[in-house]
Structures
1.
Amino acid sequence: MKFWFKWIAIGFLFPVIILFLGLFLYEYWSRIYLAKKYPPPGQLVDVGDSDSKRLRQRKLHLHCEGEGDVTVVLEDGLGPIGSLGWGKVHPPVAQFTKVCAYDRAGIMWSDPSPHPPTADKIAQDLHTALNQAGINPPYVLVGLSMGGIYSRVFAERYPDEVVGMILVDSAHPEQEERFPPAPVNLKPSPINLWLTRQLATMGILRLSHHLPNPNAKRIPPEMLPKLKAFFPQSVRAVQAEAKLFHENLHRVKGRKSLGDRPLIVLTAAKPVPLDKVPRGFTKEYLQKERGVWQELQAELSALSARSRHIISEESSHLMYFDQPELIIDAIHDVVNEVLRDHEL
């Protein structure tokens, strides 16, 4: 009996091992092939800090276009889209000034980092990449969602280099405390997060062509092939940033203002359609949440003595998809103010 049980076990385990090995190899070669099929539109900039001389230096993808005395730097929110998200904003802005979008460590074309993605480390990475690429200040920073927090930290660390800012439906350091208690917990469990990482490593996530993100359906179709190609390897970086979400929010809590630097705060106020209300939530709750969000956004506009607050009922949170022209106009206005102020 033991003899037969042994061979039955081997007969079962052998094809399972072969299957998993095949999946790992599929994912490994897919990453090599797709990196060649979809080369970075910008340059891979060495930001150093490799822990071993045997390893190549860590690189960030920095995509810059246009010419001008002021450089606009686009900072995406928390997610795997990176520089791709600014696809409708980047080219038009390049018509009147230099503009750079980039991918944070581990996202899209950028190498993963051995360091936790604190807001300070993210700002340091960006600063190093700009310097290494010869992209000199002054900078106008544009931050979407969590990118607004990262932009504020950058401005605090390098105050002499930042001359203006646009906050696009930006996160607020007190939003977690001030939002009404959510009726449903939407945070994924640690088990689900771990499972997603394993599925990505084994190639199953790639085979399923699935993007586990509620905003995936709103991504322009021309961006989807590249996003799907790099999503499995961006998962870990996105999860690492999400893990530090609370800490990074509070990094700017009670911090100093932007002085009199030109600032435009763009706020999305498009109501959520009834058929899009998340399960367990009510229309009344979403209205309360939106009311608090408007208060928080108004407070952000008080960060500068020279600010404007623009509220759009035509745009949802991902404004660079819904109303890119609103962001472009805001950038144009701030850049012009900076040029007048500094007689550039």
Note: The longest helix spans residues 2-37.
2.
Amino acid sequence: MSHQRAHLSQVENTTPNIGVPSGPRRFREQRWLVDETIRAQTIEFDQPRLAYHLGPVGDELAPADMAVIRGAVRKLDDHVPVVTGVARRRERFAREAEDAGHPQTAAVHWYAAAQLWSLACWPVWTDEALVRELDDHKNAAYLAWGAHSDHHVERVDIPFGTGVLAAWFHRPAGVDGPFPTVLACGGMDAPREIVVSRAADPWLARGFAVLAVDGPGQGETAIRGVHVTPTAWIEAGRVLVDWLRARPEVDDDRLVCAGTSFGSHWMTQVAATSPVFRGCSVALPAFEPGLRTLFEQASPTFKARHMWMAGLYDDEAAFDDMVAGYDLRPLIREMNVPWQIIGGTADELSPTGWVDELARICPAPSSITRYAGARHSMTDSPATAVGPSWRGLTIDWLHDRALGKPAGDEHRLVTAAGEVVDLPHPRRS
């Protein structure tokens, strides 16, 4: 622990080892532009990462935490010291609450601290010791929250090759299983800690257990050396299904799965090759074969992070060869799990036409809902503000699948006025 304190203290007084002459060429050459964009648009210039992490906290201090980070992070090198400073403040509040005999208050702060430590890891792609320290702090805070939580929180390490898949297993309180269970993941920048909200989580409220996983290339799993490849999630999906089926708390006849952003690609791979799921819901789809828009036209931070996720941060040519293998078309032709896709019509990271193409060739029932004018992060559109909750659509649709309700083809557009308009399904247009 003394070593960790020394290392992180050093981080606060200098800058982390980010942006050294390695990684993708565009990131090296356009680093100045990333910093200028952060200065002009805040750290959420590319996606609402503060909302992803601090939204699930749901207390009155979370907006203040967001404001502090937005105001203080003026360039990429500011990210780690600013975010860790806010995390430490939350940990101090948690210990003070515990000392005063208020475990419920402490739980709120431990959960927030875990989210902040996890957020701090985002741009650390070249300093292995630092990212492990940040992750250790995150785990300690999350386990402290779990000890106070009103539902069961269990750390899970599932053997996978020579490493493990890091996961949190959440079970509803006050009822006995076996439970319908959702296997869930986030995207490139969305670790497993954001999957379950601190309070009033909609999955737990519906009686679902949740296996929130960092798959190959994600979060702690990547930090511990398990990298992403075009097929790693297919192999991981089989291992995760075996683990779920072996748990007595899990009703393995009522399994569903969900993924967001790049998790849409991974969970589609899992569902297409592990047909035990009653439904697969994905949002913010990343379906473009080869992901050229994401890796060559969007912010260079996306490619930098994914090269780290693949263990290829210093070999861009090898990475480019690898991502050429990202293609859902061969798998989707054999998919028999009902499939839901939710996204925006103005997705700047993955051309929306690929949603139509994959739904057209998928033999399983598919439900498509798009929000008019919404970007990849489902922002910048009145449709997402006044229309139905896209997260709510995911949960309700998967709940119906777990109940055994049949799925059918759907294609819907949520207009800027919040109205839902039926459109011809791609198989019939």
Note: The mean pLDDT is 94.
3.
Amino acid sequence: MKEKIIINDVGPRDGLQNQEKILTPQERVALIEKLIEAGVRHIEVGAFVSPKAVPAMAGTDLVAAQLPVSDSSGEPFGFSALIPNRKGYDLARAAGINTMGLVIAASNTMNEKNVRMTTEQALAVCEDVLAQAKCDGANVVAYVATAWECPFEGIADEQAVIEITGKLFDYGASEVILADTIGAASPGQVKSLMTKLVAAYGAEKLSCHFHDTRGMGVADVYAAVECGIRKFDASIGGLGGCPFAPGASGNVATEDVVLMLNQMGFDTGIDLLKLSAAADLAAELTGNCDGGHAGRWIKRQIEKAAG
């Protein structure tokens, strides 16, 4: 039996939120359906945020209403949505979302730019939402953004990241995702932080979210795998970027991560050829998707099979 690694595709949210072209809810559903066809079972389908602040995420409730609850075997899909606060939590719950993601940055300036709160205020919001989720029996995960570097404050303090992570677990987060929001981390930095976090909290409660700004996204995934991490965010076609973080370009491409993990002998459950079709759709819909580095190789395999 191959060891499993979970890929959570964040393309329909993180991948689309900063695109110049705003997709309709139906177009976003079409992209999610392509990901499902490829075997992706965990997908961030949108965000319950202010449509004025992030117009691309308007209508996430309409997207959620059109998604299947489970596959043909009855196994439920792991659909999630980003929420900024209690209001977002309530909206996501009403829309039937089964996993919600809160975000807090490791740096105070990023929190002020992203959610207009200090780190302490953002932690208080997280505590309130997570307490309500515990009462409701809902699943809320937490992101620690700028976990390695902040575009405003520079290199993140590892101890501060470790302490914020601990507080989030104390508040009731089921999982904490360490996010390299601007794609500044090196594999060595990833190994350093994740080794400490795994020792403190256990690999099974941690996952990682990398951007490919400096071309090190896949290498960072590898470093985290070596630390025992078995769940990763990735974005179809390498779409992505945070509108509130200067220099945050695309996420590490799902197809690049899946290819590497498959060749390392892990089971992702994802069909690379069908994933290529999802990347093609992402490019068609956005007009701004170069695809992962592995795209050309995957297409050659398709051509060989057809020929």
Note: The CA atoms of residues 203 and 229 lie 5 Å apart.
4.
Amino acid sequence: MKVCIYGAGAIGGWIGSGLARAGCSVSVVARGATLDALQLHGLRLHQGGRVSSQAVASSALPADLGVQDLVVLAVKAPSLPEVVRQIAPLIGPQTTVLTAMNGVPWWFLQGFGGALADTRLTSIDPEGALAEGIPAQHIVGCVVHASCSLDEPGQVHHHFGNKLILGEPSGEKTARVRQLAALLEKAGFEAPVSDQIQKDIWFKLWGNMTVNPISALTGATTDRIMDDDLVRGFISSVMLEAKEIGARIGIPIDQRPEDRHAVTLKLGAFKTSMLQDVEAGKAVELDALVSAVRELGMLTKVPTPFTDALLGLARLHARVHGLY
């Protein structure tokens, strides 16, 4: 099976390494220091105290790699406009595009959302370029529950978690999504198939749409964020807004904010991905994590004053630092 990893960061590298071990013909779209490292050392994974390496094809130009059976899209949301301008050579009539990304994806309301079904979220895909560049029939959604980081370009460090939740946007358990789950399980991942991938996306977002931007604003790890009563109360207020929005589009959450806080506290002194991006001078994923929630609030007529405050402050901070 021909598999291309588009986005050779921590998560993309982790998935690619597993698929290479499972016997797939893996290629990677990369550039700069990452491309140099892949060509020199292969795709390296630091896991369980040892470093392994898998030989992969790599290029900065998708056209060099050709049509794939599977493309794993594991980029940060701000990179998507550039990706869709270049991804076409990888996609043939039968190619599956697995979107292993944080936040609300551009296809979130594709065939889902009741009265809002097929609405384009302008906060994520303002001109419709993403939907046009990666046609809906190719997409399988993926929610990643794992913690990985980069030790250096081309070398991923896997910390904990091993779950990749898969799902068709339609909720159907098609042959292709079942076959993909079987392949990922062969590669060593836990890969359940969801009845409604939007629910899994929303439930993960319910926790990280607040802690991520607050960590970016303050520089604090999750333990310090959760230890502050006022900040934790503000987070709960944002979460209650998102919970009401979810209920109105058919994805109710049966937890209280306090239940999720308890889970976050167990992570200890954890540095969020958005804080890592700020420290590295990279663009932040505010639109996929927060702007989309605000837009869904407007569409469902749910007032979002706390979400608005969070977005405004985090967006201003990011603009001042050239990250948005």
Note: The radius of gyration is 19 Å.
